Amino acid sequence: MAIVTGVFESRAEAQRVVDELRVANMKADHVGLLTPEMTEEELEARAHVTDSERPGLGKAMGAVVGGAMGVASGATLGAAVATLAVPGVGPVIAAGALAAALLGAAGAATGAIAGEAVEQALGEGLPHEDLFVYEDALRNGRSVVVAYVDDSDEDRVRDTMRRHGSFDVDQLRENWWQERRDEERAAYQQTGGDFARDEENYRRGFQAALHPKRRGKPYDEVQQELRNSHSEAELDSAFRQGYERGRRYQVTVVEIYKA
Fold this sequence. Notes:
single chain; 52% helix
């Protein structure tokens, strides 16, 4: 099994992909849609709005919290919809179990429940290492589709997403870095570092700090865990400086949203 994700300029493009995948008999709880664009009227038409407000959820569709608890035992979350207040992004609509679990890792309410339950049920990790790319896309009004597919269907699903205008995630990640590269080069060179030589490791460290498991944590706290995923040669001073800058960047993005 594999996780396939696509980023789309509009919700309409993303919805067409979801519709096509479901017509192709893909299980409803194996497809998720994330979008900042749905209106309250659209939400109310798709699911019952609870009378009370749950912390971090805004007006929540209660099926996400209750349903996520049961997903590991086979409950279907295809119809579950919730408004997640994602730190640094804002209100995002998560339709489906995979969508709730992916953004839940960012610290939104239900994240621990939905994320753990879905990953246990599916037996595969969601693409959380690129969560910051999806968050950036959502901040810019784009929509994300995430699908859990058989290995034999992976190419077909990727082709479906491309046909409907999905962006290349590698290119989005590169664009994201290029937007802040000059600022990071200046900061690194102020410490006497050679950015041309050290950029690759510096960037590794920066992005490592944005993984949901490490967000907000100082380098010393996660150093042992980083050794499990990076070589000793990579964990040099440039990596560490990049990590600390990435940690500062995440805090800044969240504070800007709060303001």
